[in-house]
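Input sequence (327 aa), recorded before submission:
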Amino acid sequence: MALPAGKALRTVFGETVAALADHDPRIVVVDGDVGSSTGAQIFESAHPERFLQMGVAEQNMLGVAAGLASVGFVPFVSAFACFAVGRAFDSIRVLIAQPALNVKITGGFSGLLAGKTGKTHQMFDDVAIMRSLPNVVVLAPADEVEAAAAIHAMVATDGPFYLQLYRESTPVLFPADYRFEIGRSVKVRDGSDVSLMSTGVQTTRVYEAAEILARRGIEATVLHIPTIKPIDEEGIVEAARASGRVVVVEEQSVLGGLGSAVAEVLSSRHPVPVQRLGIQDTYGESGPDELLLDKYRLSAAAVAQDVEASLLRQRLPILHLEGADRR
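Predicted structure, token format:
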């Protein structure tokens, strides 16, 4: 079943934070001169007196956010992931994570599809970097419903957060009454042959890949993990135990991201084969979205093909052994 079309998460960010600020005077937005691209301009139009333009000075911007949080404000940082995390990492580590300040960092244009800006703006390791920091909660919502709910949860929870945001319009995976909970994974499909785990918007493609696999006689569980830190160990173990095979798919580097987090959990809690599909230790490039997804094996069709091939490889030794027994 095809998923219905939805909003871009950057639009949801601007609308949701602006609406929350109508009733919460603590909320402010600091922007790194990208508000027209991140959705922050929606907040600027609604609350110009609480929109602080920092210019192209991201390290300083994170320092300003830390200062605002220290006197009781709830600052949201508006920037591309490559700038908010890659350029300003030291400010995050020392000024925000170490004192556990109530700063909400958003990583716009995270992942592969960064509007043809190419390798300088594509960020494949923001999850790996941010989950390595003590005190920081890392979220990657799948659709507009979950993104809005995650932002509400961020405001209601004290402490530093990192939220991945997506540039393009995204399919809608969850119903309007979906309830988001920090630290909880969500099973969006049941199957006994393999457990597919994903996060962020990539989960919508993984869900579609599972539907393709079902038409080929392969039934897959799809576990969506919107909170990468703190991660839902029990949910991961339960899904792994149900099928005995795990494939993690993410629009991130396979080094240090969700796949690594899942492998860390299962190696100590319930060892099973874990395959990691994602960006294979390389930089990206500029190009149309669909071509990039196909090239980097992240489209629904490519994921379905690679999962099917992986299952075949795992079964071959068993088939050979059975043949030897019969002879």
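Checked by second reader. Residues 186-318 form a domain with the Rossmann fold fold (CATH 3.40.50.920).
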